[in-house]
Amino acid sequence: MTGTTFFVEAASAAGSDGSRAGTWIALVALLISLIAAIFSGVALWRTHFTRGSVIFTPRFAQFSVTQWTNDGCGWFTPDIAISASIANTGVRPIVVQGLRVRVGYRGLPIPDAHEIWDFNMELDTTTELRSGPGRSVLKARSGTGPPFIVLSKAVVDKRFVCWSRWEKPVIQDLRFTLEAKTTRSRSWVAIESWSFNVTPQDWVYMTGKGTIISLPPESLESVRFNRETHPKDLHKYTGPTESLPELSSPPTPSHVVHEGSDPDRR
């Protein structure tokens, strides 16, 4: 009886250990399945549902003022042309619902003195905006402006003009801030700023000669215009050791010869 009891107890213990091992294997398998499901859910969210964000990368802006007159009345239309790349990092399309420029008057003793310039027109991104008589910006007119769509993982290049109307000359320290409203935000969001202190001479050149002022973004000023020479007198040692040779004759201007016509000299 004793031997029989021993074998029964041994078999029972083996069965219990086997049951425990099976339970642990099932738990480990369940844990692995849960981890796999979590990773699958995260991947599904990132590829189908994540909203991502909208990234604006504005570049130089062109500020100009045009003078108008009609039946003895005169006024001015200031405008600023801004180029920007707009990226959508999410997997769902976004809509840029509006663009505008907030113009702050930093030199006035009035708290938060500013005005809003509405979107005027969209321009192509290749035509060069030049100073001089006439409004070269009109030659670059293209597109309808906002609202427009930026697709998933896409980048679009835009150039647009915001403008206003002034009845009198404005000689002030101005700060232009681009603001945008998209389906990612419920309110207007500040994107980038440009600053310019309008002097009387600047005003005369803009309204009289059509001069366009190019303004760098404030976020790039410290990066783009930080010039350094070490040592400070470096170029004291970089000159020639001997006198430079003189030209025996003045250089001949280059030109293109057209058949049946005089040379087109440049």
- What amount of the residues lies in strands? 25-35%
**Biggest sheet: strands, sense, closure?**
9 strands, antiparallel
Number of helices: 3
User: Structural class, please?
Assistant: alpha+beta
- Give the mean pLDDT: 80
Descriptive notes:
- The strands form two sheets. Strands 1, 2, 3, 4, 5, 6, 7, 8 and 9 form a nine-stranded antiparallel sheet that branches. The chain has a two-stranded antiparallel ribbon with strand order 10-11.
- It is extended and about 100 Å long.
- It is 24% helix and 35% strand.
- With 266 residues, it is of the alpha+beta class.
- It has a domain at 54-218: Immunoglobulin-like (Sandwich), CATH 2.60.40.
- A hairpin with a 6-residue loop joins strand 7 (173-182) and strand 8 (189-197).
- It has three helices and eleven strands; from the N terminus they run αββββββββαβαββ.
- Mean pLDDT is 80; it is low at 257-266.
